Structures are given as structure tokens and as C-alpha cells.
Amino acid sequence: MKIKMQQNEENTRDRKLFLSLLVLSVMILGIIVSGIWYLNLTNFNHISRIILLVVGIIITLFSLIVVLGIVGILIILRKNEPVSFFYGPIRIVISYLFPLVIYLGKILGFDRLEIKNSFIRVNNQLVKPNRLEVAPENILMLLPHCIQQVDCEYRITNDLDNCRRCGRCPVDDILQLRDKYGIKVAVATGGTLARRIIKEVQPRAIIAVACERDLTSGIQDTYPLPVIGVVNIRPEGPCINTLVEIEKLEKAINKLL
């Protein structure tokens, strides 16, 4: 019980970084909107005033949608269940405000990977499968090609069952999870192939293993399709002989089931 409480506290602390930067981004948007409307009230010529008015209306509407999206994120995290009404605004927040969040975090001295990790944790908390009724065959686990040992002659990119299950890499353990739960597993060599696999399989939920960069871009591309992101381990650096915590994968499967 004590360990679980500590984990919850860590998750809350990690989520707060992204959420705090998100709120700060909205405050900056609010300042910009206020400045534009203030300029609209000054003695600009007619054409300039029309341009400022149009820009002011667009940015104001965008800001209101962003605020609604952030409220939606907080409500879903609080209620612990999905609210479809907020899917649209949340997508706007995830797709268009995330670059500003990264930029602000960089200015304030936060590490880019730390911010992306925080975003992934927030996203994973937004996945509320209690109303999805996801069957095992509707769950797709996407793996990066670097999960396999680089010198292995039995390539699994096109067929996972080429694996000889020697235990040198995590693929054997992942295949055991596949066989145990009946989920679908595929390897994607990049974002384009991942999107094609998703289009062909048409899953109702995804468990994605990748680095922070690929996970954040993948989550942005596929929202509101539920994606649980699991950051890989890179003992030899990025894109070579990466690892993954099998316990986290099994926990993600059980959450969706």
C-alpha cells in the first residue's frame, strides 16, 4: 500500500509539470489576446483596425477552445472516466499547444524529455477504458524495430514469428504476452508505417513502445484513439538494442481489458 501511494504521488508530481506549463501557455495567450483587443481600441486607421479585429476574433476563439480543452483534461483526470464532449478541444490542446509548452519549458530550464515524459503520463491517465469494452483482439501493441538485437539474423519487422525466442531481447517476453492475452502485436519502423498498420488493423486501443519523441508525435496523430505510451529503455543509446519493462506492458494490457 505504501509503495502504491508513493507511485501515485510520483505520477501526480510528473503530471503537474506538463499541466503547469499548459496553464502558463494559456496565460500567455490571454495576454496576447488582451493586447490585440487593446490595440483595437486605439486610433489605428480603418484597414489596420479591421485586420486586428479579425486576428483578435480568431485568437480569442482559439484561446477559448484551449481553455475548454484544459478544463476537459482536468475533469477527466478528476472524474476518472471519459467525457466525449471534450475530445475536440483536447485534441486542439494536444496538437497545437504542445509545441508552445515545449518552448516555454525550454526557456524555464526544463529538459525536453522531462516535459515529454510528463505529457505521456498525462495522456496515459486520460485513457479511461471503462466504457470502451475493449476485447483483446482489438488491442494493438506497436513496437519499434530497435527492440530487437541489431545483430540478430532473424528479422521480425515483417513477421514477429520469425523470432527464435532466444531471450537475448524483449521480443520473446512480448510474444508471451501476445499469446497469453490474445492481443495483436506489430513492429513499425517509423511513423508512416505505424499509421498504415493502424489503418489496416483498426484497433480500438493501442499500447505503443517508443522513445519520448515518437510517442508524443504518435499520440498527437492518433487522438482520440486511446494510446497508452510506454517509454523504452536505451542502455546503448537511441535506436539500438532498446529494452522495455514487461511489467508495464502487462499492466497496460490489463488496464485496457
TrEMBL record:
The keyword Transmembrane helix applies. The chain crosses the membrane at residues 21-39, 51-77, 84-105. InterPro entries: DUF116 (IPR002829). It comes from the Bacteria. Keywords: Membrane, Transmembrane, Transmembrane helix. Pfam families: DUF116. PANTHER family: NUCLEOTIDE-BINDING PROTEIN-RELATED, POLYPRENYL SYNTHETASE. This is DUF116 domain-containing protein. It comes from Acetohalobium arabaticum (strain ATCC 49924 / DSM 5501 / Z-7288).
